[in-house]
Design goal:
mainly beta; 14-stranded antiparallel barrel; 8 helices; two-stranded antiparallel ribbon
Length: 419
Amino acid sequence: MNSLLKNSLVCWVFSLCSIASAQTYYLAAVPFLLQSPSPQANAMGTAYGATTHISPMASIMNPASAGLFARSNAFGSEYYPDPIKYGSEDRYAWSYTVRGATLGFRTRPIRNVQLAIGLAFNDVKLDMGKVYVTDESSPDIKAIIDTWEKAQGTTLSLALQYYLRASIGYTFKHIQSQIAPGADGRLQPYTAEIDAHDFGIIVQLPIADLTQRWTHRGRRYLTQWRYWLDPGIYYTRNNIGGKLKYLAELPGDPLPRTLNLGLNLQAGVQYRDLTLVNFGWAHEVEDFLVQSDELGQSFYHTGLHDINFWKHVLSGKSSRQLIGKKGYEIGLADIYFIRRGLLESADYPGRLRTSGYGINFLQPVRIGLRLMNMERSWLARVLANLSFEKHHSEYQPDRLLMNITEYDTYVIRFSNNYF
């Protein structure tokens, strides 16, 4: 690995990737791309299978989620109220910020076929602070260099439902990095940039919808009730690209390419279009696809690599080469959400438990409007489709080296239920 990167990567790898195998993750540049930004997913062990339809940030890790988000939302924006700080004030004074927004458009059903298009934008930045450059001749500061790494992504996702529900997504990503020079007397930072992309697909089987359509039972007596039971499978391959080069004469360092494969389940009950209770569950495994040979040259793996679908995904057996992620969510009246999760890796000492919650502040207003039969007015329609939410997640404090334990975001969503 290029020695120029080591100072900027060591702390990040051992703090954010301590849940994984630092022995392999150090091979790649810009490892901040491995960090899961969404508190909804982080509270569920960073498994994104149960957040695909609710989080505007989900497309950062799973591009296909933007299509499912667009099935029920016309717009969504998620942001951190304050940057996440890493380390103490006098050491590793780094900060991490993320912003995400998703636009959605859903067509009316045509011959039982419904199409949704999601367009997402995200901005992720790791600010690694200032570096003061001196030399052996004098303690005087010769230069002050700002160090940072960032990525901007644009996601296009298409979701289609005809018996099966499927969504496919593609993210165009631009990555930039600016790090401090090594002990070579250089007074200018080293900079590099590269284009990369992510790819994802989600397939769900809406069992309850199909059962009602085929049997026609319950429509006469349960016209105001709706329930859903949607098992699914999903696949993502992230950070697909070449190698990041800070100097033309150096071979460059690979991007942290990963593969995720998982199962999910979403279920719930509604009355008069108001959700009474919902449940989400996901289990996935992650494989790091970068490896080096005997000569120290890095390369990317193809295919599923170390993942065995029957053994690791269906049976849930652990492996030294993989990270297991699982979590669940229980939603109460779309007002309060309880989330729990677990990460497992044979290289990690023990299990990392995660937890969190979500609050939809405007859902009580929506319920009140519906109960008072005031949903016909224009103002009532706007308020009924507007959501303002807070989501929180936390890791076990004693498991991380840099005290990175809590994440908070706020979400503004406008649903497309007015169709």
